[in-house]
Design a protein that fits this description.
Blueprint (H helix, E strand, L loop, with lengths): L1 H50 L4 H20 L9 E2 L11 E9 L3 E10 H4 L1 E10 L2 H4 L3 H17 L13 E7 L3 E5 L2 E4 L16 H11 L4 E7 L1 H12 L3 E7 L3 E8 L15 E5 L14 H8 L8 H6 L1 H19 L18 H8 L7 H11 L6 H32 L12 E6 L1 H5 L1 H15 L1 H4 L2 E5 L3 H12 L9
Parallel strand pairs: 2-5, 5-8, 9-12, 12-13
Antiparallel strand pairs: 1-11, 2-3, 3-4, 6-7, 9-10, 10-11
This protein binds adenosine-5'-diphosphate (ADP) and magnesium ion.
C-alpha cells in the first residue's frame, strides 16, 4: 500500500513535471508564433516601404515625364494622358473688377456658394459671405438633373437672403462664376462639356453635356435669374484668386479630395490652340494632372487593387496615390493584408477594417500627428473607427509608420509634379533679375495635413536646389478658388462697359 502510494505519488510528480514542461512549451510556442507574426508584419511594412520608394533620382524622372507629357498634351488633342485643357482665361484679374458677383464651387464632397462685393481699383474685396453644404452620396452617382437641382436649390436659398445693398441695378442680371472641378472641354469662357467624372462621382447622363446649360436649366427650374459668366475649375479659380493679391502667382495646385494643377502658358507654345492669339499672349492651362501616369511612379499591389476596384479604373493614377480621397484607403488596404497574413490585430481580421474607405484621410492625419507618449489618439482612432481595442504601443507605432510611408510618397510625388511644371515654364533655374514664381496652393489635404505639407515643401526645395528654391514661393491661397471664380465672372461680365 505504502509502495503503492509511493508509486502513485511518484506518478503524480511525474505527471506534474510533464505538465510544467507542457505549459512552458506552449508559452514558447506561443511566443514563437507571435514573434513569427510580428516578423511577418514587419516584413510587409518593409516591402511596402521599398515599393513606395521615392529617392531623388526617381522624383527627377517623374518630373521629366511630367514635362514631356505637358508638351505632348499641348501639341494635340488626346496627345497625352494630360489633357492640358485650354481654360479660355487669357487675362487674370487686374484689381479693377467691381460689383457684386456670385460664385459656386463644386468639386468634392462639399460645395460652396459665395457672394462677393468687389470694390474696383482701390477697394479690393469689400465684402464676402458664403454658405456650404455637403453633397448627399446618392447624388454623386445619380442623374444630372438631380445633382444640378440640388445645387440650384441651395443657391436659390442663398440668393434669397441677399441684402438690399447687394441688389443689382435695374435691368441687370446677377452673374456667377462657376467653379466645377471635373475635367471639362471648354469652347469659351462660359461653355464646356463634361469629359468624365472623378473623385467618386459618376453621373453617366451628364457626360458630354454642357455644364453651364445644365446649371442654367436647373436655376430656371428653381426660379433663379442668374447668368453664368465664367466656367472654371478650382485650379483656375485659385490661380485667379492668388493673382489678385500677388502678381507673381503663375501656378496653382490643388491638393484636396483630388489633385490638379494649372499654370500660365505662352499662347504660342500651344500648337493645338487654333483661336486668335490673345492680346496678353498668354493662356491659362488646366493640366488635369490627376490623370498623369508614368512607369516611374512607384505603384504597389495596394494601389493596383484600389484602382481596379474604383469607379474610374486606370484613370487618375497620380491622383490615386497623392490625394486626400485615397491616402486613408491605401493605408486601410495595407492594414487588411497585415491583419490577414500576420494576424496584426489578433487571430481575426477586424470586420470594420474590411469596409472600403472606412479609414478617411483626416483620421489618418490625426493618427500620423499623434505625439502623445502612449499614442492615445492612434489607440482611440483604431477603436472608434475599426473597433480594434487594446492595441499595444508597438502596434500603434507601426500604424504611424505606415501613415508616414503613404503620406511621404504622396507629398514627394506632388513636389516632383510641381518641378515638372516649373521645368516646362523654364522656371526651374534662377530667374534673371531675381523675379519670384509664386505657386498658389489650396485644398484640405495641403491645408490640414501638416506632415504632408512640410514634406512636400522640403522635397520641392531639395529638388530645386538652394539657389532656385529661394525664387520659388509656395503660398496658401485660402479659398482663392471661390473668390477667383467671382473675379473671373466680373472680368467676363456682360456689363463691363456700364461701370457702376
Ligand atoms: P474639395 O477638394 O473636396 O473641394 P477641400 O479642399 O476642402 O475640398 O478638401 C477636402 C479634402 O481634404 C478631404 O476630402 C480630405 O481628403 C482632405 N482633408 C480634410 N481635412 C483633412 C485633415 N485634417 N487631414 C488630412 N486631410 C484632410
Ligand atoms: Mg475644392
Amino acid at each position: 500500500m505504502k509502495e503503492g502510494m509511493g508509486k502513485v505519488a511518484v506518478g503524480a510528480a511525474v505527471i506534474g513535471a510533464a505538465a510544467v514542461v507542457g505549459v512552458a512549451a506552449l508559452v514558447v510556442r506561443q511566443r514563437m508564433k507571435s514573434s513569427g507574426r510580428w516578423a511577418r508584419a514587419v516584413a510587409i511594412v518593409k516591402e511596402f516601404e521599398e515599393k513606395c520608394g521615392t529617392h531623388e533620382v526617381k522624383l527627377k524622372q517623374v518630373a521629366d515625364a511630367m514635362t514631356v507629357e505637358m508638351h505632348a498634351g499641348l501639341a494635340s488633342e488626346g496627345g497625352s494622358k494630360l489633357k492640358m485643357l485650354i481654360s479660355y482665361v487669357d487675362n487674370l484679374p487686374t484689381g479693377d473688377e467691381e460689383g457684386v458677383f456670385y460664385a459656386l464651387d463644386l468639386g468634392g464632397t462639399n460645395f460652396r456658394v459665395l457672394r462677393v462685393q468687389l470694390g474696383g481699383k482701390t477697394g479690393g474685396i469689400v465684402h464676402q459671405e458664403f454658405a456650404e453644404a455637403s453633397i448627399p452620396p446618392a447624388l454623386m452617382c445619380g442623374s444630372s438633373d438631380d445633382l444640378f437641382d440640388y445645387i440650384a436649390e441651395k443657391l436659390a436659398a442663398f440668393v434669397d437672403e441677399e441684402e438690399q445693398r447687394f441688389h443689382q441695378p435695374a435691368d441687370r442680371q446677377r452673374e456667377l462664376g462657376f467653379t466645377f472641378s471635373f475635367p471639362v472641354m471648354q469652347t469659351s469662357i462660359n461653355t464646356g462639356t463634361i469629359i468624365r467624372w472623378t473623385k467618386g462621382f459618376s453621373i453617366d447622363d451628364a457626360v458630354g453635356q454642357d455644364v453651364v446649360s445644365e446649371l442654367t436649366k436647373a436655376l430656371k427650374r428653381k426660379g433663379v435669374e442668374m447668368r453664368v459668366a465664367a466656367l472654371v475649375n478650382d485650379t483656375i479659380g485659385t490661380l485667379a484668386g492668388g493673382r489678385y493679391t500677388n502678381n507673381d502667382v503663375a501656378v496653382a495646385v490643388i491638393l484636396g479630395t483630388g489633385t490638379n494643377a494649372a499654370y500660365i502658358e505662352r499662347a504660342q507654345a500651344i500648337p493645338k490652340w487654333h483661336g486668335p492669339l490673345p492680346k496678353s499672349g498668354e493662356m491659362v492651362i488646366n493640366m488635369e494632372w490627376g490623370n498623369f501616369r508614368s512607369s516611374h511612379l512607384p505603384l504597389t499591389e495596394y494601389d493596383i487593387a484600389l484602382d481596379a476596384e474604383s469607379l474610374n479604373p486606370s484613370e487618375q493614377i497620380f491622383e490615386k496615390i497623392t490625394s486626400g480621397m485615397y491616402l486613408g484607403e491605401i493605408l486601410r488596404r495595407v492594414l487588411v493584408r497585415m491583419a490577414e497574413e500576420a494576424s496584426f490585430f489578433g487571430d481575426d481580421v477586424p470586420p470594420k477594417l474590411k469596409i472600403p474607405f472606412v479609414l478617411r484621410t483626416p483620421d489618418m492625419s490625426a493618427i500620423h500627428h499623434d505625439s502623445s507618449s502612449d499614442l492615445r489618439v492612434v489607440g482611440a482612432k483604431l477603436k472608434d473607427i475599426l473597433e480594434i481595442s487594446n492595441t499595444s504601443l508597438k502596434t500603434r507605432k507601426v500604424v504611424i509608420e505606415l501613415c508616414n510611408i503613404v503620406a511621404t510618397r504622396g507629398a514627394r510625388l506632388a513636389a516632383a509634379g510641381i518641378l515638372g511644371v516649373l521645368k516646362k515654364m523654364g522656371r526651374d533655374t534662377p530667374r534673371e533679375g531675381g523675379g519670384k514664381t509664386v505657386i498658389a496652393m489650396d485644398g484640405g489635404l495641403y491645408e490640414h495635413y501638416s506632415e504632408y505639407r512640410e514634406c512636400l515643401e522640403k522635397t520641392l526645395s531639395e529638388l530645386l536646389g538652394e539657389e532656385t528654391a529661394s525664387s520659388i514661393v509656395v503660398e496658401h491661397s485660402n479659398d482663392g478658388s471661390g473668390i477667383g471664380a467671382a473675379l473671373l465672372a466680373a472680368s467676363h461680365s456682360l456689363y463691363l462697359d456700364e461701370k457702376l
